[in-house]
Amino acid sequence: MNEIELPNMDLDRPISSTLSVHRLPSHEGRIAEGGVRVNGGPAKSVAITVIIVVFNGAEDIKNSVRRISALRRNDLELIIIDGGSRDGTIEFLKESDSLIDYWVSEKDRGIYDAMNKGWSLAKLNSHVIYMGVGDYMTSLPDTQVLQSDVIFYGDVLLGDYLFRSGLSSRLKLGNTLHHQALLIPKKLHPTPPFDLDFKVYADYDFNLRLYKQGCQFARSDALEGYALPGGVSAAINITEMSAVVCKNYGYVWGGMSFLYGALLALKCKLRARLRA
Predict the structure, then answer these.
(1) Does some domain include residue 7?
(2) Do residue 217 and residue 151 come from a single domain?
(3) Does 129 have pLDDT greater than 50?
(4) Residue 1 within any structural domain of the chain
(5) Is the dihedral of CA 257, 196, 94, 49 positive or negative?
(6) What is the reported pTM?
(7) 28: which residues sit within 8 A by CB, 6+ positions away?
(8) Same domain (yes/no): 180, 255
(9) CA nearest to 151, candidates 187, 190, 185
(10) CA 18 to each of CA 47, 103, 117, 137: distance values in angstroms, whole numbers, following the listed order
(11) Sign of torsion over alpha carbons 143, 146, 149, 151
């Protein structure tokens, strides 16, 4: 599918109706945009699209961009969606134009609205990985390994704790796949996938939908990520987590997820006390 530019798209048209765009349509809350796509840079073959969402995270976005650029992957596109920061983030994005394929700063409806915008910008034949500000990948699999219909997952360093991702029926109780090390082929879900009814676990909801659909997952030891401590999902939101499970698997699984979340929260409190 060819990339298309839709500068005059109706602002009332939902972003989810767009499969793939070169730049986001004009927006009354737009502050600025830039990057290689805007400046007419050369087209390239893209295997991986990295989406970072940020709001008032000037220092952390610097680290994310620096770390991702250090991977030196010519088959990678970096897209940054900023929610209208006022702390120097926009100035940094302007200074880093040549390192970012596309960036935009405009008002949005939260993290997952920003992620949906980024998803609409990803090329259809790429694997998409999405990050919060301060997150980054420490390693990626070779392009030759990436198969068009396979979702790859790896481990994530959460501060000083290594989260070992896994795939089993336990995914129906709580999220066992962290998005900082999850490469999803866009063609499995061409339209933006995140349900804005969920403020913390829309990515978990997406994982469950992919799992229910029977999508193929594969572990990659070459895929590793880092998650900045204190992110939006750092504290367990038991109510929303179980609501996600209930939506996908019904009330029985939702109830078990609630109990599972309560147990996890208790373990976290005990671990914190032992460290104190």
Answers:
(1) no
(2) yes
(3) yes
(4) no
(5) positive
(6) 0.89
(7) 11
(8) no
(9) 185
(10) 20, 18, 10, 27
(11) negative
Write the DSSP assignment of 57-96 as a string of letters: -HHHHHHHHHHHHTT--TTEEEEEEE----SSHHHHHHHT
Q: What pLDDT score was predicted for residue 2?
A: 33
User: Which DSSP state fits 26?
Assistant: P
Average pLDDT of the residues in 69-95: 96
Domain that holds residue 272: 235-276
Take residue 67 and report the two structure tokens written for it: 């770390």
Q: Are residues 172 and 261 in the same domain?
A: no
4 inside domain: no
Residue 30 is given by DSSP the state E
Q: How confident is the model at residue 120 (pLDDT cuts 50, 70, 90)?
A: very high
Q: What is the pLDDT of residue 232?
A: 62
> Are residues 222 and 173 both part of a single domain?
yes
Question: In the chain, how many H helices and how many E strands?
Answer: 6, 10
> Which CATH number belongs to the domain containing residue 68 in this structure?
3.90.550.10
Largest interatomic CA distance in the chain: 57
Distances (CA, A) of 133 to 59, 185, 273: 9, 22, 28
What is the number of structural domains in the chain? Answer: 2
Q: Is residue 181 assigned to a domain?
A: yes
pLDDT of residue 166: 94
Of 26-30, 54-58, 61-65, the range with the lowest mean pLDDT is 26-30
The reply to whether 265 and 182 lie within a common domain is: no
Beta bridge partners, 152, equal 183, 218
- Residue 32 CB burial class (10 angstroms; 0-12, 13-18, ≥19): middle
Q: CB burial class (10 A; 0-12, 13-18, 19+) of residue 162?
A: exposed
The 10 Å Cβ neighbour count of residue 240 is 19
